[in-house]
Design goal:
The complex is a heterodimer of chains A (244) and B (92). By secondary structure, chain A is mainly α. Chain A contains ten helices and no strands. Chain A has a domain of 121 residues. The relative contact order of chain A is 0.10. Classes of the chains: A mainly alpha (244), B mainly alpha (92).
Chain lengths: 244, 92
């Protein structure tokens, strides 16, 4: 990666990287999530992020930037859900999750292991899994950014990620939705992190991506759980010859 | 870059019709719920939203159960055997 910065490589804790990302992202721009801005500061190791490189290429070239913006606009219009189903994505997610799990294990062993209740341990695992999932989304969706920025940040006065509420005729058009639908949409918005005040079309896009991501998370975690639970027994005959 | 902000403002002033929303909703949700709804023609927006909510809740529950199971397994398994199992699983 052609990035200059304190990229410590494999030794860096995931939390550290995420903190750095968060500080860049949250300080950048008053209102919106500045995609270009925070990707410039988005240090990441390994193969999982090539996006930063493509965005940084030809940064000074305005014509190229317009072309890229056009492509970005088109890409945003059709979020591809297929990637959540690919095996490569799942394997990437699994390896990131396993790193995070190992850190959780080390921290829980190093700290007061006896004091760590089952609930807090499973909560730590859940949060690590969610953060890894949000990282896998490459910051393109609102829910992933909300997760990575820490869900508590939502309760503070977050710089408004959405646009201010439209006034006048647009609001009248919104009111045309029956209230029952509005409440259900609000419930849905509460379920997806970071999507409380989203208008319905964006909310639906976020929801579909979130559901696809959750399904992949469930698949990956079941695979890992199966692998760990058969640790004592013989390896399954379906396994290929891995470079062990 | 205000491109995203101006983009979103444009889409809001571009009067999102109910028809658009309904299309979007049926398309997105039916894609993901093909396993659940089967071939029902439940085009009702409220039902779609309701089903989506319950589906997300069930997915959350599953993730919680899995993370509980993983936390137990992590404590029980030894370090090297866990690593070996994980490496094996990645190549399955």
């Amino acid at each position: 990666m052609a990035r200059s910065g304190p990229c410590d490589g494999k030794g860096t804790a995931e939390g550290d990287r995420l903190l750095r990302w968060r500080s860049v992202a949250c300080n950048d721009g008053a209102g919106d999530w500045n995609l270009g801005g925070y990707l410039k500061g988005f240090w990441w190791e390994g193969s999982s992020l090539r996006l930063g490189m493509t965005i940084s290429n030809g940064d000074g070239d305005s014509a190229a930037k317009d072309g890229r913006r056009e492509r970005k606009r088109k890409r945003r219009a059709e979020p591809s859900l297929v990637k959540w189903k690919t095996e490569g994505e799942q394997k990437t997610y699994s390896s990131k999750l396993i790193e995070a799990l190992r850190r959780v294990r080390r921290s829980s062993a190093a700290g007061a292991a006896s004091a760590a209740t089952d609930h807090s341990r499973s909560r730590a695992v859940r949060e690590a899994a969610d953060r890894a999932l949000a990282a896998a989304a490459r910051g393109r969706t609102r829910w992933s950014r909300a997760i990575l920025c820490g869900r508590t940040l939502k309760r503070r006065v977050l710089p408004r990620a959405g646009r201010p509420k439209p006034v006048g005729p647009a609001r009248a058009a919104e009111r045309s939705k029956p209230p029952a639908l509005k409440t259900k949409a609000r419930v849905l918005g509460r379920l997806v992190p970071g999507c409380r005040k989203l208008p319905l079309p964006s909310l639906l896009e976020e929801v579909s991506d979130y559901i696809a991501a959750l399904e992949m998370q469930v698949r990956a975690m079941s695979v890992i759980a199966e692998a760990l639970s058969t640790v004592g027994g013989a390896p399954s005959p379906a396994q290929t010859e891995g470079p062990m | 870059m205000s491109s995203r902000r101006s983009r979103s403002r444009q889409s809001s002033s571009g009067r999102i019709t109910d028809r658009q929303i309904d299309d979007l909703m049926s398309k997105l949700q039916s894609l993901l719920h093909d396993a659940r709804l089967g071939s029902h023609d439940r085009a009702s927006a409220a039902k779609v939203l309701q089903d989506t909510c319950s589906y997300i809740r069930s997915l959350h529950r599953e993730v919680d159960d899995l993370s509980e199971r993983l936390s137990e397994l992590l404590d029980a398994a030894g370090v090297s055997s866990a690593q070996a199992a994980i490496i094996r699983s990645l190549f399955m």
